[in-house]
TrEMBL record:
GO cellular component, one term: TRAPPIII protein complex
Signal peptide: none
Domain TPPC8 first Ig-like span(s) in chain numbering: 605-754
Domain TPPC8 second Ig-like, first and last residues per copy: 808-924
Organism per entry: Salix brachista
Family annotation (Pfam families): Ig_TPPC8_1st, Ig_TPPC8_2nd, Ig_TPPC8_C, TRAPPC-Trs85
Protein name: Trafficking protein particle complex subunit 8
InterPro entries recorded: Ig_TPPC8_1st, Ig_TPPC8_2nd, Ig_TPPC8_C, TPR-like_helical_dom_sf, TRAPP_III_complex_Trs85
Domain TPPC8 C-terminal Ig-like: 1132-1257
Bilayer-crossing regions: none
UniProt xrefs under Gene3D superfamilies: Tetratricopeptide repeat domain (1.25.40.10)
SUPFAM superfamilies: TPR-like
Length: 1296
């Protein structure tokens, strides 16, 4: 690329050009100011020639044509080094004006980084940078060590109205107002002079001016004088479409008409003047001076001899002190002449000649330690290399060398270093070395903030233009620049840089710098009064949980200040403070299912469905779930959630404060829409969302919020501490029928900002506690409800239900039901999930006094059980209805059955009294959480009583498992009329302490006796009093009160539940015994004998098939049954003494008692067997059930063990070869036994020698016969069988 066409080439051709000094009289300025222009401003547009086409010959004889040429005009008063403060003000003015002229819309969204990358280079960088850089370069104009700013010519201008014009010309150049460069000897005063006479045509004809021109030519020479006529427009002002003076008039305003009196003739005259001055005077003058100076330099400095001479002459100057400026050289010195030669050659385009002279004088300056002059020459060498388009490396080396040398000079070279850096940067940009250019921008940043801001911003664009783009550095330098702009009150520039930085960090994890940018840009918009945009950016930093507490306070405080300054309440869609946890969204509503408490909604739907399965109306189809049932009962609402007018829909959603500082949230409420039409298209206006700042969505939300007449909303005020999360409970209650949409939630932050959150596309993410629909239902319908007309609704709770209780705790409760509607409900049903814990009482139990109601009454009548279906559903009286203010109270019994955490559910079904309602029935769901603590660990062991039929020993072990409670054991009862229980020892002897302290154990023995009667009698008693049994008091006689009645409700009912829990049938319980242990906690440990009269514990033990069973609290089952209905015991002496010397044999009499435990007649044949043939006879006998005096609780196992033991004894004690004894009397006896009756058979044996004898060699054959012919023997009892005798040992000793 041609260097002349590059930005740097154009800048050099504009800034390093000949300077013309202008001297004028006041009348000249007066005439020019009629056009709102000074004399120089009037001529400036015509001083730039793009194609002057002038032949030039400098050092060589071969001329070249100069095309691009420009003159720089300055008044004599301006030819001086600019004042630093004035220069800074000028730079600040340029920046301020650029900000004011910036036409970009600050309220629009920041540009997207992808669009920025696609922009051209000219579009990326602001255009005013070029103006700023030129002004920055001009701050070091007219330096003594540089010649390109020294005037080449002087133009003296006098008005034709001036008196004695010729004298004026002379006086202008001889005044003391000439530049200091001329007076101080830094510049040759012998420069080209040109004389111009200005005539204002508004002052009259130009005849006088012509005469003066003739006199001027006679005085100053013919070629150096010129007449310029201006203001030729006499009649009217001229409007110039393309005003050529606008770029040169920095402080112009649209009201000023620049050049209003200058017409085309004036234009031509000005052009001719400048053209002639340039081509016929200045260029030839510079050309001639270059040739003269080149000859002088060649004669004195060029050539080997002159170079050696110069080095010898400068020998020893290395020890001279450094010079920080160029004042050590005058215009007549050889060094100054060489520098002038180089600068003139550069301005005339002879870059080779310029470079050779710069090289020549560079060595001199370096030896003389004239570092500023040296740096200036190095700078020009680098520029010359660039214009020659030669060594790029040499050009950059010279620029860096000059730059570093300027910096070494300190403050005196800082501005020159800045100019050098700018030119160096443009040189790098030309070669697309943007990264290197950015580093130079950073190096020329000064301590002056505004200057640094501009440099950093330009550096950022260099990083953007690098290949590949360095986006992070681009954004970071923009932020640095924006910070400095903001500190210098250049707010618009700060906004521009911050806005560009926003596009870089958008979507990146760099949260800290994003917060910094949004916070400061929000402040800047606040300074400009653009509060809406400022709030938008400040909103981005509110949820800055990663920031420190102090920073969070700063962000929130400044945000609220901007809001307050705006003087209005802001409404913000998706306000980030607090954070809305959409995943926590939970919806509670009631259709045909209603809930007594919020905790009821947390229970799984499957649990409720299992309870309601047998309660809801049956349909003529196969079993269906509640979803299908709902659609069949309410077919037109098949695809919608159903709610009832006047009943609240509850929404729970979590608000979280991400900050460490507390925040205040008020007026939290739902955003809802209720349309009276069933057209769903009218109710979907708010279902779409496109994120923050969606104006259409915001508009829709405002329209929805404005109409709340058809429903009522709850409002919540909360204060969230640092990091606190709070589950906000909100409700909406529709008042009329229609379609209700729950759109979102709104809140007020610190009383200044209203936040909106539209659930929108997040509908499918929430949890719906009730009313969940089919999977095919669209997510948008989850927050849409069909509102039907008002229905009756039962409200209920259980009074005084404890949250914590000890196992076995028994309490009287009351169920309270209320219906606020004017329409009644009927056909009430009730079912509980844990009948062992909650039992439904009789209506007459409502006013009972507890626990006195548990005591046994003298006049006992058969109990009237509540009406409970086989599936456990309690049916309230059919004529019962609940309506209006009528309160229904129903008694309940509570018992803590087992320890642990219990979830208790209760469902009440009821039907609508108004048959025209859309729903036929509703259910009330009640839920309670109970904690049951361990109390007594009770275990029982049952053993047969020796030598007694149908009597057993019961061993009871009790351990107090509570932590601190003392418990008094009051009563032990058996269930059923076939058992009697009594203490083996007096209670005072075995339990003197009367109570069990925490951790104490206690054991006690009882005698259990079977009292079974005939089948008819027992059935009659059992049908009337199925739970009647015997009781034994475990308290001293002095403390005894009325015993507890275990045969009536509630103890009997809870005992039935325990039986059902273990699947025990009545047949299985025929030969089993059940226990109920009653205890009471003591009032305090200081009075161990005083129990708490208001608390009763009941511990239930039911049928069990093991001899020993241990349960933690309550449930054990004990069996006394055998597989054979016939049992017997042999009552024989254990020892007999006989004198065999006197009598050879001994007759021993004993008896056998036989008991029929069945409900049938038993025919029994008892056969005795001789010991000599016992083995053969036993083999001949058919196998059967062997029953006798044995451990009845382990009948089968004992049979097998007894057989083995018997055989072992026979083999060891009674060899077959020895006749042990013989049965005397009848060898076979037949008896007939009635049901549940006993008989005795006398037996006799003869013993012939002393020894130990086993009296088990007999068998019992039995056969059961029904009492009536049409009856059958029970399925569990064998109708016939054979039982072998069991060991019974008799010891016969000889008498003394």
């Amino acid at each position: 690329m041609d260097p002349v066409k590059t930005p740097l080439g154009k800048m050099l051709l504009e800034e390093i050009t000949p300077v013309v000094m202008v001297l004028r009289t006041p009348l000249v300025e007066e005439s020019c100011l009629k056009n709102s222009l000074s004399f120089i401003e009037m001529l400036s547009p015509f001083c730039d020639f793009n194609n002057i086409d002038v032949p030039v010959r400098t050092s060589s004889d071969q001329p070249y044509r100069l095309q691009k040429f420009k003159l720089r005009l300055f008044y004599e008063s301006d030819i001086k080094q600019p004042n630093i403060m004035v220069a800074k003000e000028r730079l600040k003015q340029v920046i301020t004006e650029a900000g004011e002229k910036d036409r970009s819309d600050l309220s629009t969204d920041p540009p997207d980084i992808s669009n920025v990358l696609e922009s051209s280079k000219s579009e990326i960088s602001p255009s005013w940078f070029e103006i700023f850089n030129k002004e920055l370069v001009r701050t070091v104009s007219f330096s003594e060590h540089e010649a390109f700013d020294h005037p080449v010519a002087c133009v003296s201008v006098v008005s034709s109205k001036d008196e004695q014009p010729i004298n004026k010309f002379v006086d202008l150049f001889n005044t003391n107002k000439l530049p200091s460069l001329l007076n101080d000897g830094a510049m040759d005063p012998k420069i080209l002079k040109h004389y111009v006479l200005v005539h204002d045509n508004k002052d009259g004809p130009s005849e006088k001016a012509t005469k003066i021109l003739t006199e001027m030519k006679n005085t100053f020479g013919f070629n150096g004088c010129h007449l310029l006529c201006i203001n030729s427009s006499q009649d009217e002002q001229i409007e110039h479409q393309d005003n050529p003076w606008a770029p040169y008039k920095f402080d112009s305003s649209p009201s000023q008409h620049l050049g209003r009196y200058l017409n085309i003739y004036d234009f031509n005259e000005i052009k001719d003047l400048i053209q002639e001055l340039s081509s016929k005077h200045i260029i030839p003058y510079m050309e001639q001076k270059v040739r003269v100076l080149n000859q002088q330099v060649s004669a004195t400095r060029k050539g080997f001899r002159n170079q050696i001479k110069n080095l010898w002459w400068r020998k020893g100057k290395e020890d001279t002190p450094d010079s920080s400026n160029g004042s050590m050289y005058t215009y007549s010195s050889v060094e100054s002449q060489i520098r002038v030669l180089g600068d003139y050659a550069f301005m005339l385009g002879d870059y080779e000649l310029a470079l050779s002279n710069y090289r020549l004088v560079s060595t001199d300056y370096k030896i003389d330690k004239a570092w500023k002059c040296y740096a200036g020459v190095q700078e020009m060498m680098g520029l010359t290399y660039f214009m020659l388009d030669q060594s790029r490396k040499e050009a950059e080396y010279c620029m860096e060398n000059a730059f570093n040398t300027y910096l070494k000079l300190g403050s005196s070279g800082r501005q020159n270093a800045t100019r050098c850096g700018l030119w160096w940067i443009e040189m790098l940009k030309t070669k697309d070395q943007f990264k290197e250019a950015a580093s130079v921008y950073f190096r020329i940043c000064s301590e002056e903030l505004l200057h640094s801001a501009v440099m950093l911003e330009q550096a950022s664009y260099c990083y953007l233009l690098s290949q590949p783009p360095m986006l992070h550095k681009y954004g970071f330098h923009l932020v640095l620049s924006g910070d400095r702009y903001k500190k210098c009150d250049q707010i618009k520039h700060a906004i521009r840089t911050y806005r560009n930085a926003v596009s870089v960090y958008k979507g990146t994890p760099w949260s800290y710098i994003k917060d910094h940018v949004h916070f400061h840009i929000g402040q800047c918009y606040g300074f400009l009064g653009m509060y809406d945009v400022g709030v938008t950016h400040m909103l981005e930093v509110l949820a800055c949980s990663h920031q420190s507490k102090a920073t969070q306070e700063l962000f929130l405080r400044d945000f609220l200040q901007i809001v307050q300054k705006a003087g209005k309440t802001f409404e913000v869609l998706r306000l980030q403070l607090p954070v809305i946890n959409i995943s926590s969204l939970k919806i509670d509503f009631e259709d045909h299912r209603t809930y007594a408490s919020p905790g009821s909604t947390s229970v799984k739907e499957s649990v409720w469905c299992s309870l309601e399965e047998e309660m809801i109306p049956s349909l003529p189809t196969a079993r269906t779930n509640w979803l299908e049932l709902q659609s069949k009962l309410l077919p037109k609402y098949k695809e919608s959630n159903i709610c009832v007018a006047g009943e609240a829909i509850k929404i729970a959603i979590e608000f979280k404060n991400p900050l460490e500082i507390p925040i205040s949230i008020s007026s939290v409420s739902l955003i809802c829409e209720l349309s009276a039409t069933s057209d769903e298209t009218n109710s979907d206006v708010s279902c779409s969302t496109s994120g923050i700042g969606n104006n259409e969505e915001h508009k829709n939300l405002r329209e929805i919020i404005s109409d709340t007449s058809s429903f009522s909303l709850s409002e919540v005020n909360i204060s969230l501490g640092g990091g606190e999360a709070y589950l906000v409970q909100l409700t909406v209650t529709p008042k009329v029928e229609g379609i209700l949409n729950i759109v979102g939630v709104r809140w007020n932050l610190s009383g200044s900002v209203v936040g909106f959150y539209s659930f929108g596309a997040n509908y499918g993410k929430k949890k719906i506690a009730k009313g969940r629909r089919k999977a095919k239902q669209s997510p948008g319908n989850c927050l849409k409800f069909m509102v039907i007309k008002s229905l009756p609704k039962l409200e209920g709770f259980i009074r005084a239900l404890p949250e914590k209780a000890y196992a076995g705790h028994l309490q009287h409760l009351v169920l309270e039901l209320r219906n606020q509607s004017e329409f009644s409900v009927k056909n009430l049903k009730m079912k509980t999930s844990h009948p062992r814990f909650l039992n439904i009482g009789k209506q007459e139990d409502l006013d009972l006094e507890f626990p006195a109601c548990l005591e046994k009454k003298t006049n006992v009548s058969p109990p009237a059980n509540p009406k409970i279906a086989s599936n456990g559903v309690f049916l309230f009286p059919e004529d019962l209805s609940v309506q209006g203010e009528n309160l229904l109270l129903w008694p309940l019994w509570f018992r803590a059955a087992v320890p642990g955490n219990i979830s208790l559910q209760v469902v009440i079904y009821y039907e609508m009294g108004d048959l025209s309602s859309g729903m036929r029935y509703r259910t009330l769901r009640m839920h309670y959480n109970l904690q049951v603590l361990p109390s007594l660990d009770v275990s029982f062991k049952i053993s047969p009583y020796p030598s007694r039929l149908q009597e057993f020993l019961v061993h009871m072990d009790i351990v107090n498992k509570t932590d601190s409670e003392s418990i008094q054991v009051n009563q032990l009862s058996t269930i059923g009329s076939q058992w009697e229980i009594s203490l083996l020892q007096p209670i005072d002897a075995i339990f003197p302490s009367q109570s069990l302290i925490a951790g104490q154990a206690f054991s006690c023995f009882f005698v259990l006796k079977s009292c079974r009667k005939s089948s008819s009698t027992e059935e009659s008693t059992s049908s009337l009093f199925p739970h009647i049994g015997s009781n034994v008091s475990l308290v001293p006689d002095g403390s005894k009160g009325a015993p507890f009645d275990t045969s009536n409700s509630p103890l009997a009912d809870f005992h039935d539940c325990e039986r059902l829990q273990h699947g025990i049938s009545n047949q299985e319980a025929e030969n089993s015994v059940d226990f109920i242990l009653i205890s009471r906690p003591l009032k305090n440990n200081a009075q161990p004998g005083v129990s708490d009269a208001h608390h009763v514990f009941s511990h239930h033990a039911c049928h069990c098939r093991q001899e020993y069973t241990k349960l933690l609290i309550i449930i054990s089952v004990y069996s006394t049954a055998s597989t054979s209905p016939v049992s017997w015991v042999v009552d024989a002496p254990r020892t007999r003494h006989h004198d065999f010397s006197t009598t050879s044999f001994c007759e021993i009499n004993f008896r056998m008692t036989i008991y029929n435990s069945s409900n049938a007649r038993a025919s029994i044949v008892m056969k005795t067997l001789d010991s000599t043939s016992i083995s053969d006879q036993l083999r001949d006998e058919t196998s059967g059930n062997q029953v006798g005096w044995h451990d009845v609780s382990l009948a089968k196992d004992n049979k097998m063990e007894s057989d083995a033991l018997r055989n072992h004894v026979r083999k060891s004690l009674l060899p077959e070869s020895v006749s042990a004894f013989i049965w005397s009397g009848s060898s076979s006896t037949r008896v007939q036994l009635k049901p549940l009756s006993t008989t005795e058979i006398p037996l006799q044996i003869c013993v012939f020698s002393p020894g130990i004898y086993d009296l088990s060699n007999y068998v019992l054959n039995w056969n059961l016969q029904p009492v009536d012919d049409h009856e059958k023997v029970g399925e569990r009892i064998q109708s016939s069988g054979t039982s072998l005798g069991y060991p019974c040992y008799l010891t016969v000793l000889p008498s003394d």
